[in-house]
Design a protein that fits this description.
Elements: H1 9-31, H2 37-44, H3 48-76, H4 78-98, H5 102-117, H6 120-130, H7 134-166, H8 170-173, H9 175-189, H10 203-226, H11 231-253, H12 267-296, H13 302-307, H14 310-330, H15 333-352, H16 359-386, H17 393-419, H18 427-430, H19 432-450
Length: 462
């Protein structure tokens, strides 16, 4: 069922605005907590690994359920699932804001992840369905990606301001009125839509996927403290390997797998997933390491530490619509090259800054990372959508968004692990491996852009 052909231009762009506002909440909650982590740690007496789970409990569940949420929306209606997600997300945010302990906070963050999983791919599916013209769709995806990138980059800035002024609980309260307003607008503006045939769910594959992501992140978070060769971590390696083998075996035998291996035969789709993973690993390493370092090692306030991320937010916002325009006119390769160069240059500047980086170098590096995020998101999202038929938009958006959130989870896990066991005086030197990873992520984007026909067609001809 589709009403795209009967929608006026004003209605189509209003639908984009509503979906983008919901996506702003999803991206915001991925990073707004980062700058509040030291205050949460003091308020709830949490260790570094416990604080990592405050972030990753959200992103892991978000990543694990995204694909099934996209299929669920394609089967039962995108608007319906979107509303359920917004409601769950808003109520869970209230729970986070009043959480009395670290365990309860992590539990409500899990529930937030459940709600968020019903927003990302569903929002993209709604937008794609409302924009049948390829050029218009490419511009819409550019705006959609810019809002998501802006939300991720704005998180530390807004979180720092709120934490300084009102305490860490305010970073969760701020979500509630926006979620309520989005629910009202969805009821008013967004029509129901679904493809002609929905996809069946895959409970065994879904359970195995979440277990695999959780196991991998657990190993990365706990290994620096327990020891990479300790018995619990060695057991973790074995469990992750068994889960991976089991997941591959189950999915190859399912008629409707949660991740269809055949999708990755499309070179553009496979490249989009790898690119999304690389971008969000790099982004979250930078955001976590810099904001945590400035507060713990330099004794900066949350507001001041968050403000250092402002160039990242501005550059991501400015570059994303431009990337959408470039994708529509000349294809995905040029913006990917620009993103690659920006990530690599940002990582090199951070490496050159040494163990006591000057504020100007941090600002410059953040600006370059923002440029990279801005130019990368639109071609990656557009590639995923245009590699598959329009009726698979929910699944395409789910897999790509899942790759982003897995990247966010891995980035936080790696960044937190770099700081484990270090004193405030040694945190600066501990960050250097993180900057090497940022450079490598830039090179991954370069390889994707340089590959033969990484995205088979331009948006204008899809």
């Amino acid at each position: 069922m589709s009403t795209a052909t009967s929608l006026s231009a004003a209605r189509r762009w209003s639908i984009l605005a509503v979906c983008a506002s919901a996506m702003f909440l999803v991206g915001l909650d991925t990073t707004i907590v980062n700058v509040a982590l030291p205050e949460i740690g003091r308020g709830l007496t949490a260790t570094t690994s416990g604080l990592q789970w405050v972030v990753d409990a959200y992103t892991v569940v978000f990543a694990g359920l995204l694909i099934s949420a996209g299929a669920l929306a394609d089967r039962f209606g995108r608007r319906r699932v979107f509303l359920i997600g917004l409601t769950t997300f808003g109520l869970a945010s209230v729970g986070c804001a009043v959480a009395p302990s670290l365990g309860s906070l992590i539990g409500f963050r899990v529930l937030q992840g459940v709600g968020a999983s019903m927003l990302g791919p569903v929002a993209l599916g709604i937008v794609v369905n409302a924009m049948p013209d390829p050029r218009e769709r490419a511009r819409a995806i550019g705006i959609w990606a810019s809002v998501f990138g802006l939300s991720m980059a704005t998180g530390p800035v807004l979180g720092g301001a709120l934490t300084t002024a009102f305490g860490w609980r305010s970073v969760f309260w701020v979500v509630v009125p926006t979620a309520a307003a989005a629910i009202a607008l969805v009821l008013w503006i967004v029509p129901e839509s679904r493809p002609a045939t929905g996809r069946r769910l895959d409970p065994p594959g879904q359970v195995l996927l979440i277990a695999l992501i959780v196991g991998t992140v657990w190993v990365l978070i706990e290994a620096p403290e327990l020891g990479w060769g300790s018995p619990p971590i060695l057991t973790g390696y074995l469990v992750v390997a068994l889960l991976l083998a089991g997941f591959a075996r189950v999915e190859s035998r399912r008629a409707y797998p949660v991740i269809d291996p055949r999708l990755f035969r499309h070179s553009g789709f496979a490249a989009a997933g790898i690119g999304a993973l690389a971008v969000f690993v790099a982004l979250n390493i930078v955001l976590f390491l810099i904001t945590f370092y400035l507060q713990v090692a330099q004794d900066w306030s949350p507001l001041k530490a968050g403000a250092v991320s402002l160039p990242l937010a501005i550059c991501a916002t400015v570059c994303a619509p431009l990337a959408g325009h470039l994708v529509a006119r000349i294809g995905a390769r040029p913006p990917l090259y620009l993103a690659s160069g920006a990530f690599a240059a940002g990582g090199v500047i951070l490496l050159a800054a040494g163990s006591a980086p000057a504020t100007t170098m941090l600002l410059c590096a953040n600006a370059l990372i923002g440029v990279g995020v801005g130019f990368a998101n639109a071609p990656i999202t557009n590639a995923a959508v245009n590699s598959l038929p329009r009726e698979r938009a929910g699944v395409a958006g789910g897999i790509t968004s899942s790759a982003r959130q897995v990247g966010a989870s891995l980035g936080i896990a790696v960044a937190g692990g770099l700081f484990t066991g270090h004193t405030p005086e040694t945190l600066g030197a501990a960050m250097r491996p993180g900057w090497v990873i940022v450079v490598l992520c830039g090179l991954v984007l370069l390889a994707i852009g340089a590959a033969e026909n990484p995205y088979r067609s331009k948006a204008s001809t899809t």
